[in-house]
Every structure is written in structure tokens, then in C-alpha cells.
Amino acid sequence: MIAEMKNWRHVFKLDPAKVIEDGALERICESGTDAIIVGGTDNVTLDGVLDLLSRVRRYLVPCVLEVSSMEAITPGFDAYFIPTVLNSKEKKWVMDIHHEAIKRFRHFMNWNEIVIEGYCIMNEQSKAFKKTNSHLPNDEDVVSYAVMAEKFFRLPIFYLEYSGAYGDPELVKKVKEQLNETTLFYGGGIRSYEQAKEMKQYADCIVVGNVIYEDIGAALDTVLAVK
Ligand code: 1GP
What we know:
Blueprint: H1 2-5, E1 10-14, H2 22-29, E2 35-38, H3 46-56, E3 63-66, E4 79-85, H4 91-105, E5 114-121, H5 127-131, H6 139-152, E6 157-161, H7 169-178, E7 183-187, H8 193-200, E8 205-208, H9 211-214, H10 216-226
Parallel strand pairs: 1-2, 1-8, 2-3, 3-4, 4-5, 5-6, 6-7, 7-8
Helix pairs in contact: 6-7, 8-10
């Protein structure tokens, strides 16, 4: 999965706490996107995760769980993405909950299915930023987190996360210039063909979330922009 992930250009992120009709889900899964990530910040329940997993499984598209709650982990996904929040002020979000999860689940964990994402959360208004008690990094901080992800931690993914807000393409460009091995994911506020194209110039893979629930046509256009 790590090898495949390196070639991804576009993924849709579905929130298990939100409702999506079968028709819309079919269009998302059959859109040509490279994968579906199931993940959210609040109210992620096992029932919600299982519901999406079983429905996405009707299609061929790879399906990944981005783990945010230990109570909502289930077998059956193609891979498990585990965020470590590099700009959190609390060690808890960098490694402590991960340590706890390894203590509980290490006998069941298949490390070939597990991909660690080095998150840098950039939108102060987002739930994820507040929940993880993150600090807002300046450009030099962000670039250094990216270098740290690749050279220090050797993480497969560096995820520049603006969730809910459209980020700064110039910063995405600067980050990309630092990365050779680590794959750059950009997510946040992509709501159009043009925005998808702009961010994809620099990011290896763009993540599209909220617009799925607000304007399915615009969401589908973001796939066309990167193909
Ligand atoms: C959220 O990065 C993703 O985790 C996508 O952000 O929901 O703003 O598209 P949006």
C-alpha cells in the first residue's frame, strides 16, 4: 500500500459522522479518485466507520481508515493511516496515544498496512487544530517540519492540513521543494477545478473533503483537474 500511495494524486475524505446518500457515494467512488479516506475529528463512531466501509466496499476504489479514535478501529480496510501532529504543543498528539494504541493492539497490528502521516495543521479555526492544541507555525517552521518528517522521522507522508480553509499555494511549493522521499499531501478548502489544479501543481496528492457534502458536482470536478 505504501508503494501504491506514492502514486496517488487525488483522494476523497469521507467523514463517518456525516450523511452521504448512496447515489452521491457511488459517484465519488467511481470518480477516478485514487482512494477514499474515511476519517473525521468529532463523533467518529465504530457504527459510522463500519457503515462507510461496507458501502465503499461495493466499489473497486481503495479504502483507507484514518485513525482518530481507538474505539472506531476495525479490520477490513486496505490500509490504516495514523496521524502524528508535528505542530501540537502536547506530546499526547505526537506519540502518546499512539504508544497507548500499540500497547493495546500490538499483537493484532499488521505494520504492512499502517502508514504514518506527519500532520502540520494550519487552520486555527479548525476542530483538529483546537483539539490537538496546535500552535500556528510560520513558513520557516512549516518547511522545517517537512524536513523533520522526511529526514528525522522518515515518515512516508507529510500532510499540510488546512481543513476547511484554502491554504497558501506558495507555502505548498516551498514545502514540496524540500521533499524527495516523503509524499506531500495537501488538504483544505479545495472547492473547484481551479483550486485543485493550483494545489496539485505542488502537492503530490490533494485531499478533498467538505465540498463532497455541499456541492457534489464541484467535488467531482476536482478529480478531473488532476488527471
Ligand atoms: C480534511 O484535509 C481534508 O482533513 C480536506 O479538507 O474538508 O476543507 O476539503 P476540506
